[in-house]
Amino acid sequence: MQHYDLIIIGTGSGNSILDERFRGLKVAMIERGAFGGTCLNAGCIPTKMLVYTADVASTPAHSSRLGVDETLDGVRWAEIRDRIFADRIDLIAAGGRDYRINHEDNSHVDVYLGTARFTGERQVEITPNDGGAVTAISADQVVIAAGSRPSIPDIEGLADADYLTSDTVMRLEELPASMTILGSGFVAAEFAHVFSSLGVAVTLIARSAALLRAEDADISERFTELALGSFDEGGTQSGAGWDVRLNTSTRRVEQYDGGIRLHVDTPAGPGTIESEVLLVATGRTPNTDQLNVAAAGLETTESGLLAVDEYQRAVAGGDVVPGVWALGDICSPYQLKHVANHEQRVVQHNVINPEQLIASDHRFVPHAVFSAPQIASVGLTEAQALERGLDIDVARQDYGGIAYGWAMEDSTGFAKLIADRSTGLLVGAHIIGPQASALIQPLIQAMSFDQPVASLARGQYWIHPALPELIENALLQLDV
Ligand SMILES: Cc1cc2nc3c(=O)[nH]c(=O)nc-3n(C[C@H](O)[C@H](O)[C@H](O)COP(=O)(O)OP(=O)(O)OC[C@H]3O[C@@H](n4cnc5c(N)ncnc54)[C@H](O)[C@@H]3O)c2cc1C
Ligand SMILES: NC(=O)c1ccc[n+]([C@@H]2O[C@H](COP(=O)([O-])OP(=O)(O)OC[C@H]3O[C@@H](n4cnc5c(N)ncnc54)[C@H](O)[C@@H]3O)[C@@H](O)[C@H]2O)c1
Fold it and tell me: Where is the FAD/NAD(P)-binding domain (predicted)?
């Protein structure tokens, strides 16, 4: 059995571990799919390239409020798709693979294109993609960066239906006339915006009474109102145009010639929903179940995440499993690329500095949902802060109350800040509206560096009359 200093399973965030400090190590890198993993090939990057395109395509729907009448003359799907994949992403993935396999920088690296599975402690067998013979290898250290995959609910008929997931929907040959999206989380919210803006009739199915239920309740409520199209104060940022079915559970899925039929239970009774395609967007499952982790003496949590400590070391039965590290979606409940990147830097440091371990910082993990409108969030929701018994003050500032918000005629967006009276520090920030993902950054910074609300608000200039005045005005309302 070939022995290595280091095995890395997965080339998403795992691909960034190797730098010049690893040149002295003999490394095996294993990848069963496209180089670069989910973010590059089927996640953050292509979705945001589509979201920006959708933002542009949807401006005519909103421009008349400014006295500008626009029309959308057409959408060239094949061109949009190929600009993203054929012209950019697929080239980067192929280039990354070629670099690891052929470049002299990587003469210390063996790349195995196949599926890894543990057979013992730090022992792995690889089934090659090309059908060749299974290879067994071992190493002193193993980094598990094998990510997650779309989870498919156990609904009668679904497994036999020709459904789409985030892995396949972006590469469709043609735009469908209609699409049902099962789920109401991140993926559903982003693709509903993308495909409805490109002219697809989108039906969104939510099991509960609100979309994006994990957000602060005010944010989830506003997003749901807008998606339903029932917000009537101008409704200019509305994602309306989606057919939103709340409190709806799916009993059975049936494929028919030309489409897919869902048999659903709704508050009004049983019914059916038909569309040309079905996108399943019901969460992601960590890939631990496919790795035979028990054979390596590794443990998983109830939700299937690989158990790790704050240094990203695998743990089992409360003890550290020597020489095994993990990062990203395989072990992280956040399932976000910036978290995977952070954990990758921690693992990278710790593998080569075993005497000076550094810990991951998960104190203030932000996220953004790139839908219509955008949402961004960091820290506690109001309900979580109250549950913790914090003495909080809450401020809410509308985009419509600041100069740039007037310029945009925004009547639906707002920022909600939550601060702890006992410390004068922010504990949560939530924004719904244009550029939310960019506007939230100074608040993440303040929380990460313990900057009090008062000095954040008045210890710096805020450019007038720019959009960040939304944040300045919200901060000034806080009585902490
Ligand atoms: C549609 C979508 C949009 C997203 N948008 C965002 C966003 O805007 N912002 C954000 O922060 N996050 C976003 N995410 C989440 C983000 O993509 C992930 O959190 C991130 O890519 C996880 O990185 P990772 O390195 O842990 O795993 P991955 O990038 O998934 O890498 C794991 C790699 O391991 C390989 N692998 C798995 N099992 C094996 C095996 N047994 N043998 C060999 N190889 C194996 C896989 O093929 C894969 O290449 C999005 C996700 C999706 C699905
Ligand atoms: N902008 C971003 O950062 C971004 C974008 C896309 C995805 N992601 C990451 O990918 C992960 C996966 O996204 P997602 O939207 O698939 O998951 P999610 O956890 O955000 O949402 C899952 C949705 O599916 C529903 N659901 C679960 N089981 C169901 C069932 N049996 N029947 C019907 N509905 C069901 C849930 O109620 C929820 O609405 C996210 O958690 C996120 O971390 C991030």
Answer: 4-340
Write down the pLDDT at residue 241.
Answer: 81
183 is in an annotated binding site: yes
Q: DSSP assignment of 2-66, as one string? A: EEEEEEEE-SSGGGGS--GGGTTS-EEEEESS-TTHHHHHHSHHHHHHHHHHHHHHTHHHHHGGG
The residue that leads in pLDDT, 339 or 232, is: 339
Q: Say which CATH number the domain at 453 has.
A: 3.30.390.30
pLDDT tens per residue across span 371-409? 999 999 999 999 999 999 999 999 999 999 999 999 999
Kindly report the number of other CB atoms within 10 A of residue 55's CB atom.
16
ipTM: 0.99
Q: Is the pLDDT of residue 446 over 50?
A: yes
Ligand lying nearest the CA atom of residue 17: 1
Number of domains in the chain: 3
Question: Do residues 109 and 100 make contact, with C-beta atoms less than 8 angstroms apart?
Answer: yes
- Top mutation candidate among 50, 186, 343 for ligand 2, by most atoms within 8 Å of CB: 186
- Pair of tokens at residue 320: 């550290």
pLDDT in tens, 24-63: 999 999 999 999 999 999 999 999 999 999 999 999 998 9
Percentage of the chain exceeding pLDDT 90:
97
Query: 234 a known binding residue?
Result: no
How many other C-beta atoms are found inside a 10 Å radius of the C-beta of residue 203?
20
Q: How many Å lie between the centroid of ligand 1 and the Cα of residue 388?
A: 32
**Which residues surround ligand 1 with Cβ inside 6 Å?**
9-14, 30-33, 37-39, 42-44, 47-48, 115-116, 145-147, 166, 187, 287, 290-291, 328-330, 335-338, 340
- The CATH number for 261's domain is 3.50.50.60
* Residue 245 CB less than 6 A away from ligand 2: no
Residue 125 covered by a domain: yes
Does a structural domain hold residue 362?
no
Query: Is the same domain home to 116 and 179?
Result: no
CA-to-CA distance for 404 and 471, rounded, in angstroms? 12
Q: How many CA atoms lie within 13 A of 49 on its CB side?
A: 20
Q: Taking a C-beta distance cutoff of 8 angstroms, is the pair 330, 342 a contact?
A: no
What is the distance between the alpha carbons of residues 401 and 349, in angstroms, rounded to a whole number? Answer: 46
CA dihedral sign of residues 209, 210, 216, 221: negative
**464 part of the active site:** yes
Is 244 annotated in a binding site? The answer is no
DSSP three-state, residue 223: helix
Q: Minimal CA–CA distance to 245: which of 263, 219, 218?
A: 263
Residue 354 burial class via C-beta count within 10 angstroms: exposed 0-12, middle 13-18, buried 19 and up: exposed
Do residues 386 and 450 share a domain? yes
Residue 468 sits in which domain range?
374-477
0.90 cut: is pTM over it? yes
